[in-house]
Amino acid sequence: MNVCSASGIVLDAFLGARQYSVNPKQFAQVREAAGQCSPKPQQFTQEILTTPGARIATIPNGSVLLNALLGQQSSYFRLSTYVSAGSTEFAFYSLLYRDGSGMVRPLLLTDTPN
Length: 114
Known about the structure:
Layout: H1 8-15, H2 24-34, H3 41-50, H4 62-69, E1 76-85, E2 88-98, E3 104-113
Antiparallel strand pairs: 1-2, 2-3
């Protein structure tokens, strides 16, 4: 998971506590002020391991697992496409995965009429 671009809700789900999603505007300002990545993966890993009640902290080699899961880049991407045909509008959502060779394949495709 790309810690740098994950939403506050996603970060909180990993953390097991509400911290980043409490005030989304303030979180966005902190990220903008940091200029690069906030929180940094190493900082976020430490937060998870020291958060009371965090389940990952009870797993042997939990920090190794977190280092494999968390980073500043991701191979998974969301594509949102909006199409208008006459007076009808559709929204298409795709979860895409880019493998090591650079090939992109869809993992999930959904559509919703608006």
